[in-house]
Amino acid sequence: MTIYSQHATRGKTQILATYQGPDGVVSKTVTSLAEPRLAIPVVDALNRISAFATVPVSIHDHRERRVGYYPRTHLAALTDPVARTALLGGTHSLWYEYVCLRLHQALADLESAVAALPDTVSRAIRSELEAEKHGLQTGLADFSGTSSEEEPETERCWEFGHPFVKYDDELDTLSDETREQLDQRESGCTSEEREKAVAALRVLVTAHSQGGDVWASLDDPSCRLFAEPYDSDGFYLTIEAPEPGDEGASWEIEVGRWVPDDPEERPGNHTSATGHTVVACALPVAPTAEEIAHLLKSVDEKPLLLAEWAEAPAGAVLAGTAMVVTERYDS
To answer: Per its UniProt entry, which superkingdom is the organism in (predicted)?
Structure first.
């Protein structure tokens, strides 16, 4: 719906909103700040909010070979703090709930960014979110034929299939590939199985976001976290959620190591290698996001902890955790 940017003028930094109006592309000033460093997190959060709010209502839901629409209930969260809790409680689909989680995180980031700013700036930002929501809701009402006006007037134009947003969040949340991947993952699931898969996805994504400066990747946004801290001597950590619909599956924590394809090379100092699991821990209960985030921070602060864990025999508890080794892969 809107692309945000910052612009220096007369010793201040303006936050600009650029959008498609009835007569073409329009840019207007949202607010001004004393320093560019104050504007950077605000602009970043606003762009993510705009993208996560707009894209779901601008594309078709193609799951199960049908053509439907995604919900629009998430729009209420743009201006209603109480409605934001609902962003973490839905079960519509893996991709939509993934986007709602990212929207919740972006709104929280915006709130943190403006907390120390003057009240005039906070009011301007709230007004901007109101305008963003109003433009989307007006366009959607007209598109769906539920508008009470013959030609509803809006300052910001919205058109299905053409979201005017700044892509993306560097995690490809809104990409076709991610959406198709998550749709495939939930294919054939019952509503109960989908609910469990959504809950697991929230845990992984939230843990990843809580990691701060810890380097960890969402290998597949739907099932696994991968961490290979610097100076870990070739060891790495994988945290994987159960496959949807697999009742007997549990969360898995695995320590693996890269084994050089050339036997003359040393682990951790190779040109090409293949990863091999060394120890695995099947968790009896699902972990919380905080527990996973703590695990990631532990190996980031002490990379060779992974090498220590890799020595643990089956049945032993990994040092500093409550996780029990359920299987070794010594071969």
So the answer is: Bacteria
